From TrEMBL:
<protein>
    <submittedName>
        <fullName>Uncharacterized protein</fullName>
    </submittedName>
</protein>
Length: 288
């Protein structure tokens, strides 16, 4: 059965792939998951992943050999990063960064360096780099300077939903911020009735403030939308936090992604994702 379509929304990064490759990787991971947890003959949906890794400019602040963060372009940028990093893992002022764990650190305040070191100690070497690079992309998404680019991102997601008629969205990492923002703006069609978020940073209060939630620490979707949130407690992007404490409408499921806790494909291969997608398929297309 390939008439049920799923739209997958990736994190803001993903510059080294494209829409075809991304859809193929996600589709194969979801098909493996359904075959493993439901059965080899179980139906898998079609997968579309609107690609927008080309929309935002590449950052220029270098973190190690392969990680970059966006240029701090506006007043308040560094303060947002500080608030988010320290909300993620409060730093210990008496501790110093372990030698070599932070890579080549850009010119930032000692508070940022201390926060990165605290995240490294909690989640492992270079976890702070991963968190900072993703946070810089959140900052870029909400930046007034890049408002037109954020509009492009939301438009690509919306067009994919409309073109495929998808009723289920799977959002990974910062893609969950984009999708929640679209729900908040009333841009997600009412036909969508299932959301799966994986490795989401929506539990962070500074990100909720960026979303301008009327009631901080409270997330809300339309009442007809079922919401499954899947997280690996060792995924640094989630800060080890679920979303069930923020809304009664979300179900948290803890999983183990082994040695790559933030991997989108490993999240897709997890049993709670397979069960939810399969249930959605059978509800939309009951077996005679």
């Amino acid at each position: 059965m390939d008439d049920l379509q799923v739209v997958g929304v990736h994190g803001i990064r993903q510059r080294d792939t494209n829409e075809v490759k991304l859809a193929e990787d996600w589709s194969q991971a979801l098909s493996r998951s359904i075959a493993m947890h439901i059965g080899a003959n179980a139906a898998a949906p079609g997968m579309t992943t609107p690609y927008y890794g080309d929309v935002f400019p590449r950052g220029r602040l270098q973190l190690g050999e392969n990680e970059e963060v966006a240029e701090l372009e506006e007043d308040g940028d560094e303060e947002f990063l500080l608030q988010a990093l320290e909300a993620h893992t409060p730093p210990d002022p008496s501790s110093q960064p372990p030698a070599g764990t932070l890579g080549k650190v850009p010119r930032m305040s000692p508070r940022v360096t201390a926060a990165l070191a605290a995240i490294d100690r909690r989640f492992g070497p270079r976890a702070g780099q991963l968190v900072l690079s993703r946070l810089s992309e959140v900052q870029g998404y909400f930046s007034d300077k890049h408002k037109d680019k954020a509009d492009q991102v939301r438009d690509r997601v919306l067009q994919s939903i409309k073109q495929t008629g998808a009723t289920l969205i799977i959002a990974h990492s910062l893609g969950s911020v984009v999708v929640y923002d679209m729900f908040r703006r009333g841009q997600i069609p009412a036909s969508v009735n299932q959301l799966i978020t994986c490795g989401s940073p929506l539990a962070w209060l500074p990100i909720q403030r960026k979303l301008r939630l009327q009631t901080p620490t409270t997330l809300q979707l339309p009442t007809h939308v079922a919401w499954l949130n899947v997280l690996d407690p060792y995924d640094p992007i989630t800060a080890g936090l679920g979303l069930a404490n923020l809304t009664p409408n979300v179900t948290d499921e803890l999983v183990d992604n082994q040695d790559d806790p933030h991997s989108a494909e490993l999240y897709l291969e997890q049993r709670p994702v397979a069960l939810t997608v399969h249930s959605h398929i059978t509800q939309q297309h009951p077996i005679p």
